[in-house]
Amino acid sequence: MTDGPADEAGPLLRVRGLTKHFPVRGGPVRAVDGLDFEVRAGETLGLVGESGCGKSTTGRLLVRLLEPTGGSIEFAGHDLTHAGRRHLRPLRGQLQIIFQDPYASLNPRHPVGRIIAMPLRVNRIDPPGGTRARVRELMERVGLNPEHHNRYPHEFSGGQRQRVGIARALATEPRLVVADEPVSALDVSIQAQVVNLLRRLHRDLGLALVLISHDLAVVRHLCQRVAVMYLGRIVEIGDRDDIYHRPQHPYTRALLAAVPHVGQFGPAGRLRLTGEAPTPLDPPSGCRFRTRCPRARERCAVEEPALVRRDGGGQATACHFPGPDPLPAEPVRAMA
Amino acid sequence: MRQRAAVAVGGAFVLVSALSACSANTGGEPQVDTGRQATGVIATDPRDSAGPAPEVAGARRGGTFTILRETPISHLDPQRTYSFAGLMTVPLIARTLTTWKDDGEGNLRLVGDLAETPGRDVDDDCKVWEFRVRDGVRFEDGRPVTAREIGYGIARSFDPDLAGGPTYLQEWLVDTPQYDTAWDFQANRTSLPPGLTTPDDRTLRFEFARPRCDLPFAVSLPTTAPLPSDRDTGVDLGNAPFSSGPYKVTRYRAGVEIVMERNEHWDATTDPVRHQYPDRFVWSFGPTPDAAANRVIADNGADQSALSWDYVPASLIARVAGDAGLRARTILSPTPSANHLVINNARVTDLRVRQALNHAIDREGLVKVLGGRHVAVPMTTLMPPATIGHRTYDAYPAGPDGDPDKARELLGGQRPELVLGAADSSLEQQVATQLKGNLERAGFTITIRNIPDDAKLDEIKKSGNPWDLYLGSWAADWPSGASILPVLYDGRTIRAQGNSNHAYFNDPAINAEFDRILTLPPTEQSRQWAELDERIMEEHAPVVPLYVDVAYLVHGAKAGGIFVSSVFGSPALVDAHVKP
Amino acid sequence: MSLSPAAGPVPAAIGSGGTAGPPRDRRGAGHSPGRLAWLRLRADRTALASGAALVLFLLVALAAPLIELTYGIGPRDQFQDRLDGFGLPLGRAGGVSGEHFFGLEPRLGRDIFIRLVYGLRTSLFVALAAAVLTSVIGVVLGTLAGYLGGWLDAVVTWITDLTLALPFLVVALVLPPMLTLRFYGQRDTVPAAFGVGVLIVIFAVFGWTGTARLIRGQVIALREREFVAAARASGAGPWHMLFRELLPNLRAPILVSFSLTVPQFVTGEAALSFIGVGLTEETPSFGRMIYQSLEYLQTDPAFVLFPGVVIFALVLAVNLFGDALRDALDPKSAG
Fold first, then answer.
1. Sign of the C-alpha dihedral computed for residues B515, B517, B520 and B523 taken in this order
2. A97 to chain C: which residues are within 8 Å by CB?
3. pLDDT tens profile C151-162
4. Which CATH class is domain B8-279+560-578?
5. Rounded to two decimals, what is the model's pTM?
6. Residue ranges of region Disordered (chain C) (predicted)?
7. Interface test with B, best of C81, C86, C97, C309 (most B CBs within 10 A)
8. Chain B contact partners (≥3 CB pairs within 8 A)
9. Could you give the C-alpha distances from A47 to A213, A265, C314, in angstroms and in order?
10. Which one is the CATH code of B334-550: 3.10.105.10, 1.10.510.10, 3.40.50.150, 3.40.50.1370?
11. pLDDT tens-place string over residues A58-105
């Protein structure tokens, strides 16, 4: 709740109990239902999950394109949760977003130079050396020919356009960039280039990155930490290696199992996700994953598991029966 | 897209080639009998009123005579009818106290119809009139017509439920325009209105508080059609009138057609004007004037013995007039409907301005705007030439095109700014445009202000209306100066609204002349009205006489005996017959 | 939504180097969508022809007083001495001669050519002014309703429905006389410009709903696009949103709806004058001429032909050009 300068010791982004409900007929859609996580300066966090799990909504909440229903978002010591446009304005430049669709995210009527300069213009930032020089520098940095600043988006390929979108996000020298599925709309051959670009930018500029993706390979390549979302909640969060090599939550294990050559683990690799994810309109009681979980027990239907750290390390799991190994055949009633 | 363009270009090409194929218009004047004057008199000799009417040359009995008209006749109740179509149809199914012997060429003679003569002025003061009812006239059920049924007909015209017809008799009998409150017909069904008596079955007696020298004319209107009280169906009478004339209504389909067939109880020897040639008359409603004219021109089947009731529409005049083969099937006749450029004398008080307007007017150009001599003929008098005793004169001779120089001279350098109120109908807008150009060339400044077409008549009838000039027309109910000059120019009648004197002209000397002439015997009046007409124009120029309407009719090759009524300007049906 | 394949508004993505694209100048500047539309328009022969015709019409309308000067005849001059007894023009094809190019009107005997020139001026002025006004009202209300949504959208939608429910003819019939009376009393001269102005206002008041609905729909569609979200995420205010992000993308629908309303108002003016509601007799007008000419279809076809062909050509040119413009702006819609 502090309005003062960022506490350098604390995390850059702190999210507590973040909730977003969309009112529709038949009750609210609980798209995001109580998220807690932090992102430190210069850190990369991957947000993974199936489509519809609320990760994109989370991305939009972080840059306040949506207003949260509950919880709080604190960025560099400022509470953004319900800040108005005027209050957000000084922070906008430090918090940028890259969109999934490189076609829809660029204004077709503007030359790319103007698109890239847009955040400078709306925030009335006059960079040293002038806007033109800054645009050239940004275009070079993302691997575009600066001579092409007068061209229009339709004259660029999808990968190039995504570079324009990235350049735009970088224009104001942000400290945190939310990348919402930045490569999923691109050809596979192009994806690697863009992923590498993001990686290089992170390294060179030291920006914090929240990468939202359903692609575990991309996340593994880019992120230091990973949060796994299911039906609006984080089911597991931890360092990359922990998540990929020692997944505790059955859902994480199932996700990894579905992707060849990403996770190598033991017998649990046989886990298969069956059926559709339940609707966020009416999530299951207790543990939300229980309807598709091979380990589900009576307790799972009654009690919602909290996200708890294990072993005092950075890895936290929301599961009553976590662990790498298959459960004993006998349900452990005593634990309930 | 390209196809559309090609069609367009092709269409335009066809039109252009069609156009270049037509021949050059070299002009040529149509002939309208414009010098005609009514020589009407009231026939005092009973022999003039005796039947039967002379046979029409070439007429024979039989056949169906059809009349085509766009708008239906709303009803045929004699006491309620006032439209030209109604006034021309009612004589076929109803007799009236007097009627006009009319040759369609201005020779008019008022004769007795139900009456043996056109009335007797008992004390020579026009206050007491007696009519002796003819013997042998019968209703369609064979009952004889007596003074009682005629009196009942007049009495029922007081019924406010049966309004719509002429109101002269009603107003004169009780001496007030609010006649229906002065005498309540519905409460006195068995009696006659005050002033009207039937001393015996063959005598009808009118007594008035004031001299009513025009009574013989007024009783020619269908107010005096007879009706037995037991056959009075009230408002329903219009759909099934009870006939005393040569025809009776045998079928009445509202808005579609009216069929009239012979009434065998009608006796030709009792009737001075009517005939009974066709087996039946059929009014057929619906076809537009264009369609009706085209049908009778095409002359096929039943249309061969048909008449297109409306005047030939402007769009067809040049074609019909230019077709020599149609000449025998057209009738061209001036009507008594007179049109003036009315000057609001309450506003334009300078006589010289009014006279300058009269000098400036270009009647020839105006007639061209109206559609030529088949639509209008110029007129320089207050009363139309069809008025009994009319004399042609031109108080401000300026030639057919007007004399702008003379007008300027009269104006003496001033440039009067006048507002011309014009209805927003297409035709009147063009007439107003013509008048504006015409008068501005003669040194006036004219502002045209539009008045909604349907409101114009009411507006210009309001005294204190804001306009200086407007177009006005007057069609009298009988061709006597008494029904024109005092009605239009007696300044003592001016009230807040509903003025017929819409020139708002008021001159005591002229008013006194009205009083003097109105008490003269009708036969002596006509010459005096004509003199007064000229005097008013010379001394006061209250209006600019413009033109009289011209009737231009076309009928099928087998339709005969049609002429234009000199009284109403519409086709008369009493001589109609179907040629073999 | 995050897994859906990309679907962009532009049909053909041009290769990475842009080599497959249309020709570009040496500076390496790209072709804006507007410039591409212009290039497409220039390559369309129908567009060129109808555009040239429109320019010609505009020039004639603008130069009307000049034409009057060289022609030597004014729109109100009468030549009744050249009419016959029926008020019809003497001579061939409605009095066509070296002096009167298109002949004379029956009755009043005015010169058809110069009245058509001035009628064109009236017609184009009314149509263009009304179309501009219509577009402005429609775009402003449509954009506000679409972008801001909420109660404002509800109010604008309500006003739209109300306007659509208003009986156009009744208002067109009743309003002008009322306004005339209000502003000029019963006797003052009513300038022709007043009637023209009232007509334009009536057209605008009734004409904006189509544009507003179209623009509202477009804005709602655009509002969800990510470039708008990008601008918002950067903190762009409503001004930037509307004028920098949204409006440039609305140019095509605005132009198209403009090109549709112009001929609609040309014929609208004619139709109103046709039923006697439009301009006064003194103002030269296509509609009134055509209305008056129809009577003469049989007796003086030239009087029907000349105004008919001119208004037909004008409306056709505007429509064809509008079609071409739409094709050029949105090649997908081309047959």
1. negative
2. 229-230, 233
3. 989 999 999 999
4. alpha beta
5. 0.75
6. 1-31
7. C86
8. C
9. 6, 21, 62
10. 3.10.105.10
11. 988 998 888 899 899 998 888 888 888 788 888 888 888 999 888 888
